[in-house]
Sequence to fold (252 residues):
Amino acid sequence: MQNFRSDASRKKNDMVPAINMEKQLQRMVAFIEMDGADKARDIDERAEEEYNLIKGNLLYNGRRELQELYTKRNKTAEKNVTQLESIIITKAKMVVQTARQNFISEVTTDIHKRLEERVSEDGYTKILKSLVMQALCMLREEDVIVQVREHDRESIQSAIKELKENYNKITGRDCNINLSKKHLPDRLIGGTVVYNKRCTLKIDNTLYDRLRIVLEQSMPMFREILFNEVPRRIDTTSKKHQIKKTNTKVRK
Fold:
């Protein structure tokens, strides 16, 4: 009986360390599991933070790129619209300017035609003699060469004596008037060009040149009346009929 109790006691004593070891193992396993769970939770949290950070950066960069792209395209579109508006306005101005210029050209052509009609009238001979006399008085040379249209040659030839007398009355000087064998072109409408003997001085007193001067001086007024344009200032100090030096030689 005693032996049996001693064996049982011995077995019981042997089981105590085993139970304690098992509990320790369970505690270690529980600790490891808890520590692993904590680390897994930390890893998940860090991963979530990194994911949110990366996602935020991607979204921010994406929005910024979209905004930059939108801004760039918007600026390009505005620039294109501005350029298109400028092109349209420029073309419209060119169309208007061309139409105005064509109208002025038509008016100028009509004026030339009317002046040509007046030249064919009887009163033109008196005008021609006045133009020659004006050129003589401006040139004030003893020997001059008078150049006219072929159609006007006979009229001036017959009026040379009268021109000399009138010139002498006006200036108190004598003048030797020679007709040039070279005639003015008909496109100059009429009038005269007078040279000194050496052909170094010239007075252009043709109707074409006189009309050109009148049109140039009156054009701002015409544009203001016709198109409501603000007239530009014209240099009135320049004299279109001043004596000009020229190298052109005219044969007598």
Summary: Residues 180 and 252 are 5 Å apart (CA to CA). The helical segments are 2-119, 124-139, 153-171, 207-227. The mean pLDDT is 82.
